[in-house]
Specification:
10 helices; single chain; globular; binds zinc ion
């Protein structure tokens, strides 16, 4: 007998199964199919495809990261009852992207939540490309999924040299998601600190600007930094290699 591997043995492909109490419910195979489809369209980059919460390292030299992983697991468990986003802050290589990808994969697979991953630099590049007449996609074509997906990962926030256009675009994205009550998970290398030219900063502080490492306030503007505080819980990820923190200052 040749039984096709495609047909679910539990529901014979109907998508419905009868429980012991004879109540008919959705078969698990449909959840699995939905999860697979969502995962395939979540735009998770190849190099992060293997990332799971279960294979995130937090032992030995990474023991500082145990609390970050715990917060990530708690987030998945409580979502969507608790839907405040996360702002993962830490130096390059500490595993922020791994954790962010692990969270959305778990939301997709275990809860069937539509999620999308975007690299901040890549997204801004795509939006800029849409202004080119030879490109068919409009700005809104690029932005619509970013606005509308239930959970968005915005990776490497602040990694593009700030200009007025960059600030306007970040504001549009964050404000739209904020106003629509959507959950955003953000990673950044920049410390969560005020901009050098923020109001109230002393002349001395401004003069120090060149000498100090850039902050999130410098890179996305103070207004958006405080917006993030309303949208996200902050998770600081400190790895074992503190030298990296200072290297990140020269990162584009
Ligand atoms: Zn089934």
């Amino acid at each position: 007998m040749n039984v096709s591997a495609e047909v679910c043995p539990v529901c014979s492909g109907t998508g419905w199964k009868a429980g012991a109490d004879r109540r008919v419910t959705r078969c698990d195979c449909r959840m699995k199919q939905k999860g697979e489809a969502l995962l395939a369209s979540a735009r998770i980059p190849k190099r992060y495809e293997h990332c799971e919460l279960s294979n995130f390292e937090f032992d030995g030299p990474h023991r500082n990261l145990a609390s970050a992983r715990m917060a990530a697991c708690k987030f998945v468990e409580e979502y969507p009852v608790e839907d405040t986003g996360l702002l993962l802050i830490g130096s390059i290589g500490v595993g922020k992207t791994h954790l962010a990808v692990g969270i959305i994969k778990e939301l997709i697979v275990s809860k069937g939540i539509p999620c999308l991953f975007y690299d901040y630099r890549e997204l801004l590049k795509q939006i800029q490309n849409s202004y080119n007449d030879s490109v068919m996609a409009t700005e809104l074509d690029v932005l619509r999924p970013v606005f509308e997906t239930e959970v968005l990962v915005l990776d490497e926030l602040g990694a593009v040299k700030p200009t007025e256009w960059v600030w306007d675009t970040v504001s549009l994205i964050l404000n739209t998601r904020y106003n629509d009550n959507r959950t955003t998970i953000i990673t950044t290398n920049y410390p969560d600190d005020v901009a050098a030219d923020a109001p109230g900063r002393s002349e001395f502080a401004r003069a120090q600007r060149a000498a100090r490492a850039e902050t999130l306030g410098d890179r996305i503007g103070e207004r958006m930094r405080s917006r993030l505080h309303e949208m996200c819980r902050i998770i600081k990820m400190e790895g074992s290699d503190f030298r990296q923190t200072f290297k990140s200052a020269s990162f584009r």
